[in-house]
Amino acid sequence: MQIRPAAAGLLLIALGAMAGWPMLALAHAVAEGDKGYIQEITGVHLIPFAYLGAKYMVTGYDHLLFLAGVIFFLYRLKHIATYVTLFAVGHSTTMILGVYFDIAVSAYIIDAIIGFSVVYKALDNLSAFQRWFGVQPNTKAATLVFGLFHGFGLATKVQEYNLSPDGLLPNLLAFNVGVEIGQLLALAAILIAISYWRRGGGFWRHAYTANVVMMTAGFVLIGMQLTGYFVTQG
80-86 contacts: CB < 8 A, separation 24 or more? Predict the structure, then answer.
Protein backbone atom coordinates (compact mmCIF):
# COMPACT_ATOMS: atom_id res chain seq x y z
CA MET A 1 0.00 0.00 0.00
CA GLN A 2 1.43 3.34 -1.11
CA ILE A 3 1.03 6.44 1.06
CA ARG A 4 1.04 9.74 -0.76
CA PRO A 5 3.90 12.16 -0.02
CA ALA A 6 1.43 14.69 1.37
CA ALA A 7 0.71 12.29 4.23
CA ALA A 8 4.37 11.84 5.09
CA GLY A 9 4.58 14.92 7.31
CA LEU A 10 1.68 13.74 9.45
CA LEU A 11 2.89 10.17 9.73
CA LEU A 12 6.49 11.22 10.39
CA ILE A 13 5.50 12.59 13.79
CA ALA A 14 3.86 9.30 14.71
CA LEU A 15 6.68 7.18 13.36
CA GLY A 16 9.27 9.29 15.16
CA ALA A 17 7.51 8.90 18.49
CA MET A 18 6.93 5.19 17.85
CA ALA A 19 10.61 4.63 17.13
CA GLY A 20 11.63 6.71 20.15
CA TRP A 21 14.14 8.77 18.21
CA PRO A 22 16.70 10.21 20.64
CA MET A 23 16.70 13.55 18.83
CA LEU A 24 12.97 13.99 19.27
CA ALA A 25 13.13 12.90 22.88
CA LEU A 26 15.86 15.41 23.61
CA ALA A 27 14.01 18.17 21.81
CA HIS A 28 10.95 17.55 23.94
CA ALA A 29 12.91 17.77 27.19
CA VAL A 30 14.36 20.93 28.69
CA ALA A 31 17.52 21.84 26.80
CA GLU A 32 20.48 22.30 29.13
CA GLY A 33 21.36 25.67 27.61
CA ASP A 34 17.82 26.97 28.10
CA LYS A 35 17.67 25.53 31.60
CA GLY A 36 20.93 27.18 32.64
CA TYR A 37 19.89 30.54 31.23
CA ILE A 38 16.50 30.55 32.96
CA GLN A 39 18.00 29.50 36.28
CA GLU A 40 20.42 32.43 36.20
CA ILE A 41 17.91 35.23 35.54
CA THR A 42 15.39 36.93 37.79
CA GLY A 43 12.61 39.40 37.12
CA VAL A 44 10.31 39.72 34.14
CA HIS A 45 11.67 38.41 30.82
CA LEU A 46 8.71 38.12 28.48
CA ILE A 47 10.44 37.54 25.13
CA PRO A 48 12.76 34.72 26.30
CA PHE A 49 9.87 32.90 27.97
CA ALA A 50 7.61 33.33 24.94
CA TYR A 51 10.41 31.90 22.78
CA LEU A 52 10.84 28.92 25.10
CA GLY A 53 7.09 28.25 25.04
CA ALA A 54 6.96 28.28 21.25
CA LYS A 55 10.07 26.11 21.02
CA TYR A 56 8.63 23.60 23.46
CA MET A 57 5.35 23.22 21.58
CA VAL A 58 6.79 22.84 18.08
CA THR A 59 9.13 20.09 19.35
CA GLY A 60 6.50 18.44 21.57
CA TYR A 61 5.69 15.44 19.39
CA ASP A 62 3.15 13.98 21.85
CA HIS A 63 1.13 17.21 21.86
CA LEU A 64 1.35 17.42 18.06
CA LEU A 65 0.16 13.83 17.68
CA PHE A 66 -2.93 14.58 19.73
CA LEU A 67 -3.62 17.78 17.80
CA ALA A 68 -3.20 15.95 14.50
CA GLY A 69 -5.76 13.41 15.67
CA VAL A 70 -8.17 16.11 16.81
CA ILE A 71 -8.24 17.90 13.46
CA PHE A 72 -7.86 14.79 11.29
CA PHE A 73 -11.51 14.68 10.20
CA LEU A 74 -12.38 18.35 10.75
CA TYR A 75 -13.02 20.34 7.58
CA ARG A 76 -14.55 23.63 8.63
CA LEU A 77 -12.35 26.30 10.21
CA LYS A 78 -14.91 27.15 12.88
CA HIS A 79 -14.93 23.52 14.05
CA ILE A 80 -11.14 23.43 14.10
CA ALA A 81 -11.10 26.71 16.04
CA THR A 82 -13.58 25.33 18.59
CA TYR A 83 -11.55 22.21 19.35
CA VAL A 84 -8.20 23.99 19.36
CA THR A 85 -9.64 26.61 21.73
CA LEU A 86 -10.91 23.90 24.10
CA PHE A 87 -7.48 22.27 24.06
CA ALA A 88 -5.76 25.62 24.64
CA VAL A 89 -8.04 26.52 27.56
CA GLY A 90 -7.34 23.15 29.16
CA HIS A 91 -3.56 23.14 28.86
CA SER A 92 -3.21 26.84 29.68
CA THR A 93 -5.17 26.45 32.91
CA THR A 94 -3.25 23.53 34.37
CA MET A 95 0.14 24.70 33.09
CA ILE A 96 -0.13 28.08 34.81
CA LEU A 97 -1.76 26.80 37.99
CA GLY A 98 0.54 23.77 38.20
CA VAL A 99 3.69 25.87 38.08
CA TYR A 100 2.42 28.85 40.08
CA PHE A 101 1.20 26.70 42.97
CA ASP A 102 4.05 24.20 42.56
CA ILE A 103 1.74 21.19 42.19
CA ALA A 104 3.95 18.11 42.18
CA VAL A 105 2.89 15.50 39.63
CA SER A 106 4.96 12.61 38.26
CA ALA A 107 6.12 13.60 34.78
CA TYR A 108 6.15 9.92 33.76
CA ILE A 109 2.52 9.36 34.76
CA ILE A 110 1.32 12.57 33.13
CA ASP A 111 3.22 11.81 29.92
CA ALA A 112 1.75 8.29 29.94
CA ILE A 113 -1.74 9.85 30.14
CA ILE A 114 -0.79 12.13 27.25
CA GLY A 115 0.20 9.02 25.30
CA PHE A 116 -3.20 7.56 26.19
CA SER A 117 -4.86 10.70 24.81
CA VAL A 118 -3.23 9.94 21.46
CA VAL A 119 -4.54 6.36 21.60
CA TYR A 120 -8.01 7.60 22.52
CA LYS A 121 -8.15 10.08 19.65
CA ALA A 122 -6.94 7.56 17.09
CA LEU A 123 -9.57 5.04 18.28
CA ASP A 124 -12.21 7.77 18.15
CA ASN A 125 -11.20 8.60 14.57
CA LEU A 126 -11.55 4.90 13.72
CA SER A 127 -15.10 4.88 15.22
CA ALA A 128 -13.93 2.11 17.56
CA PHE A 129 -16.08 3.21 20.49
CA GLN A 130 -19.23 3.11 18.41
CA ARG A 131 -18.44 -0.34 17.04
CA TRP A 132 -17.29 -1.83 20.35
CA PHE A 133 -19.64 -0.20 22.86
CA GLY A 134 -22.35 1.45 20.78
CA VAL A 135 -21.60 4.88 22.23
CA GLN A 136 -19.84 7.99 21.01
CA PRO A 137 -17.83 9.90 23.66
CA ASN A 138 -18.32 13.64 23.81
CA THR A 139 -15.39 14.74 21.68
CA LYS A 140 -15.43 18.34 22.88
CA ALA A 141 -15.41 17.34 26.55
CA ALA A 142 -12.63 14.81 25.88
CA THR A 143 -10.53 17.47 24.13
CA LEU A 144 -10.89 19.81 27.11
CA VAL A 145 -10.14 17.09 29.68
CA PHE A 146 -7.10 15.82 27.84
CA GLY A 147 -6.02 19.45 27.39
CA LEU A 148 -5.91 19.69 31.19
CA PHE A 149 -3.56 16.71 31.34
CA HIS A 150 -1.41 18.10 28.52
CA GLY A 151 -1.15 21.28 30.58
CA PHE A 152 0.15 19.33 33.57
CA GLY A 153 2.68 17.81 31.18
CA LEU A 154 3.79 21.32 30.27
CA ALA A 155 3.92 22.24 33.96
CA THR A 156 6.23 19.35 34.82
CA LYS A 157 8.68 20.54 32.15
CA VAL A 158 8.51 24.18 33.24
CA GLN A 159 9.13 23.16 36.85
CA GLU A 160 12.45 21.71 35.73
CA TYR A 161 13.61 25.29 35.16
CA ASN A 162 13.35 26.05 38.90
CA LEU A 163 11.97 29.48 38.05
CA SER A 164 12.66 32.46 40.26
CA PRO A 165 9.55 33.70 42.12
CA ASP A 166 10.51 37.22 41.02
CA GLY A 167 8.33 37.87 37.95
CA LEU A 168 6.96 34.33 37.98
CA LEU A 169 3.39 35.05 36.85
CA PRO A 170 4.26 37.40 33.95
CA ASN A 171 6.92 34.96 32.78
CA LEU A 172 4.44 32.07 32.95
CA LEU A 173 1.92 34.05 30.93
CA ALA A 174 4.59 34.86 28.36
CA PHE A 175 5.56 31.17 28.19
CA ASN A 176 1.91 30.29 27.61
CA VAL A 177 1.63 32.88 24.83
CA GLY A 178 4.67 31.26 23.23
CA VAL A 179 3.04 27.85 23.55
CA GLU A 180 -0.04 29.14 21.73
CA ILE A 181 2.11 30.66 18.98
CA GLY A 182 4.00 27.40 18.58
CA GLN A 183 0.74 25.48 18.57
CA LEU A 184 -0.69 27.68 15.81
CA LEU A 185 2.46 27.30 13.70
CA ALA A 186 2.45 23.52 14.09
CA LEU A 187 -1.29 23.38 13.48
CA ALA A 188 -0.95 25.40 10.28
CA ALA A 189 1.68 22.99 8.96
CA ILE A 190 -0.47 19.96 9.82
CA LEU A 191 -3.55 21.54 8.22
CA ILE A 192 -1.65 22.33 5.03
CA ALA A 193 -0.41 18.74 4.80
CA ILE A 194 -3.84 17.25 5.47
CA SER A 195 -5.60 19.65 3.08
CA TYR A 196 -3.17 18.79 0.29
CA TRP A 197 -3.60 15.10 1.07
CA ARG A 198 -7.40 15.36 0.90
CA ARG A 199 -7.27 17.03 -2.54
CA GLY A 200 -5.13 14.19 -3.87
CA GLY A 201 -7.93 11.65 -3.58
CA GLY A 202 -6.02 9.13 -1.45
CA PHE A 203 -7.10 10.47 1.92
CA TRP A 204 -9.90 8.01 2.63
CA ARG A 205 -7.86 5.05 1.37
CA HIS A 206 -5.06 5.75 3.84
CA ALA A 207 -6.88 7.43 6.75
CA TYR A 208 -7.27 4.08 8.52
CA THR A 209 -3.55 3.33 8.24
CA ALA A 210 -2.60 6.81 9.47
CA ASN A 211 -4.73 6.46 12.59
CA VAL A 212 -3.46 2.94 13.31
CA VAL A 213 0.11 4.27 13.16
CA MET A 214 -0.93 7.16 15.42
CA MET A 215 -2.53 4.75 17.89
CA THR A 216 0.55 2.52 17.89
CA ALA A 217 2.74 5.55 18.57
CA GLY A 218 0.51 6.42 21.52
CA PHE A 219 0.86 2.93 22.96
CA VAL A 220 4.64 3.11 22.58
CA LEU A 221 4.69 6.47 24.37
CA ILE A 222 2.65 4.97 27.21
CA GLY A 223 5.03 2.02 27.46
CA MET A 224 8.12 4.24 27.46
CA GLN A 225 6.77 6.51 30.19
CA LEU A 226 5.51 3.70 32.44
CA THR A 227 8.84 1.92 32.06
CA GLY A 228 10.64 5.08 33.08
CA TYR A 229 8.34 5.48 36.08
CA PHE A 230 8.87 1.96 37.41
CA VAL A 231 12.62 2.09 36.77
CA THR A 232 12.96 5.33 38.75
CA GLN A 233 10.79 3.94 41.55
CA GLY A 234 13.00 0.90 41.82
Answer: 80/187, 80/191, 82/140, 83/139, 83/140, 83/143, 84/183, 84/187, 86/140, 86/143, 86/144, 86/147
Residue 39 to residues 13, 64, 165, Cα–Cα distance (Å):
31, 27, 11
pLDDT tens digits, the chain, 234 residues: what are they? Answer: 444 544 554 554 454 444 444 434 444 555 666 777 777 788 999 999 999 999 989 888 899 999 999 999 999 999 999 999 999 999 999 999 999 999 989 999 999 999 999 999 999 999 999 999 999 999 999 999 999 999 999 999 888 878 888 999 999 999 999 999 999 999 999 999 999 888 877 888 899 999 999 999 999 999 999 999 999 986
Residue 147: left (phi > 0), alpha (psi -120 to 50), or beta?
alpha
Distance CA 128, CA 14 (A): 19
Using a cut of 0.85, tell me whether the model's pTM lies above it: yes
Domain boundaries, the chain: 5-233
